[in-house]
Amino acid sequence: MADVKTTICGIDFPNPVWTAAGPGGADAQMLLRAARGGAGGLVAKTISLEGARVPFPNIISPFSGSLLNAELWSEHGYLHFIGRELPKVREAGIPVIASVGYSAEELALLGKELDRAGAVDAVEFSIHYVGKEPENLKRLASALKDNVGVPVLAKLSPAVTDLEAVVRILEDVIDGFVAINSVGPALDFDIETRQPLLGSEDGRGWLSGGAILPVALHYVEAIASLTDKPVIGVGGVRRVEDVVKHLMAGASAVQVCSLAVLKGQEVYGKLAADLSKWLDSHGFRTVREIVGLYRKERREPVQAEARLFPQIDEELCNLCLLCERSCIHQAIHFEDKEFHLDRTRCLSCGLCCSLCPKVALSLVPEKS
Ligand SMILES: Cc1cc2nc3c(=O)[nH]c(=O)nc-3n(C[C@H](O)[C@H](O)[C@H](O)COP(=O)(O)O)c2cc1C
C-alpha cells in the first residue's frame, strides 16, 4: 500500500485528508467523530472572542454537491472552546489545528490562550472578514505569530486579488498557507416567494463544494508557485481524483468541508484509503511524489501547426449523441450511426471531448 503519511511544518499526519474549519469541527464531539471517520488532521471551526450569532437558516444546498452558507464562525465563546472542547479532542491522537479570527487584538489574545492551554499543534487564521490589503494581513499574521509557539497557517479567501503581494508579505511571518475559503458573496432565492434562501441580513452567503474546485486549484497552484512554504488545499473535493488534483497543484494536504456536511464524517477515511489505492494503481509509493506534479510536468502550450479537430474512436462511442446535442456550433451530426464533422463550422472548442462520457472523442491535428 502506498504511504499516505505526511509531515507538514514538522507535524506528522497519518494521512493528508483533514477536516476544514466549519461544521465538521464545531466541537469536540464533531472533531472526534471526524477522527473516527479517518481524518488525518483535525481543523476546528474558527473561534473569535465573541461566539457568533448566526442567522437562520444558514446552510442550504443550491444544487447537487455544493453549499451556500451564512454561518459566521463558532457559536462557542473562546473560553469554552479552548478550555472545554479542545482538551477532549486530544483523545483523538492526531494533530489538532485551531482556527482563529479576526482582528489583530483578537488574534494576539487567542494565540496566547491557545498557547497557554497547549491544546493544539498549529493555528490557522482566517482572513475572510478582514479584507485583502497585504500590510494589514501582515499585521494580523504577526499579532498571532508573536503569541504562539506552534506553526501558524494563513487561510486565504478567494477575494485576494494581488496574490503575489499577499504571499510575499506573509511568507516571512507565517509557516504555511491554506487556500481557499468559500466563494462569494453569493445569492439564491425562491422565485415564488421572492425571498432569499438564507437568513442573513442581505440574504447572501458563501459558496462551497464541487462548484469551487477549479477556483481552489487556481489559488493552490498559484500560491505553491510563489513560495516554498507548505500549502494546504481546500475547496471542491468530491472524490479522490479531486484530492489528487489539489496535491498535484502543489498542496501538501487537503481539507474537506462540504462533502463531509453532505455525506457524513466517514468521507475523510474513505478519501485517504482511495488516495492510497490511486497512488498504488499509478505506480507512486508515497503521497509526496505527486505534490506539485502538475507544475513540474506541465508543458508550455505550443501553438499547434495544424488546426485541432475532434476525432471519434468508434469502438468507444456508445452513440449517446451528447456531442451532437451539445455542439453549440452545430458542427457534429450522426448519420446512420456514423459521426460527421463539418470542419467549416467546428471552432475546435473542445467541449464535445470534455463531455463525452466514454472518452471516445479527442482533439487531434488536422490531417494534411
Ligand atoms: C457551513 C460552513 C461553515 C464554514 N465555516 C468556516 C469557518 O468557521 N472558518 C473558516 O475558515 N472557513 C469556514 N468555512 C469554509 C470551509 O472551511 C472551506 O474553506 C470551504 O467550504 C471550501 O471547502 P469545501 O468546498 O470542501 O467545502 C465554512 C464552510 C461551510 C460550508
Summarize the structure.
With 368 residues, this protein is of the alpha/beta class. It has 2 domains: 6-297, TIM Barrel (Alpha-Beta Barrel), CATH 3.20.20.70; 308-365, Alpha-Beta Plaits, CATH 3.30.70.20. 32% of the residues lie in helices and 21% in strands.
Structure description:
With 368 residues, the protein is of the alpha/beta class. The protein folds into two domains: 292 residues, Aldolase class I (TIM Barrel, Alpha-Beta Barrel), CATH 3.20.20.70; 58 residues, Alpha-Beta Plaits (2-Layer Sandwich), CATH 3.30.70. It is 32% helix and 21% strand. It contains twelve helices and 18 strands. The strands form five sheets. Strands 3-14-13-10-9-8-7-4 form an eight-stranded parallel β-sheet. A four-stranded antiparallel β-sheet has the order 5-6-12-11, with no helix packed on it. β16 and β17 form a beta hairpin. α4 packs parallel to α5. The longest helix is centred in the last third of the chain and has 15 residues. The chain is globular and about 75 Å long. The mean pLDDT is 96. Flavin mononucleotide binds next to β4, β6, β12 and α8.
What brief labels describe this structure?
18 strands, alpha/beta, 21% strand, Alpha-Beta Plaits, binds flavin mononucleotide, 8-stranded parallel β-sheet, 4-stranded antiparallel β-sheet, TIM Barrel, globular, 32% helix, 2 domains, 368 residues, 12 helices
Structural class: alpha/beta
Unreliable stretches covering 5 or more consecutive residues? none
Distance separating the two termini: 47 Å
Assess the beta-strand content as a share of residues.
15-25%
Mean pLDDT: 96
Counted up, domains total 2
Biggest pleated-sheet summary: 8 strands, parallel
Which second-level CATH architecture of the largest domain applies? Alpha-Beta Barrel
Q: Going across the major beta sheet, what is the strand order? A: 3-14-13-10-9-8-7-4
How many individual helices? 12
Shape: globular
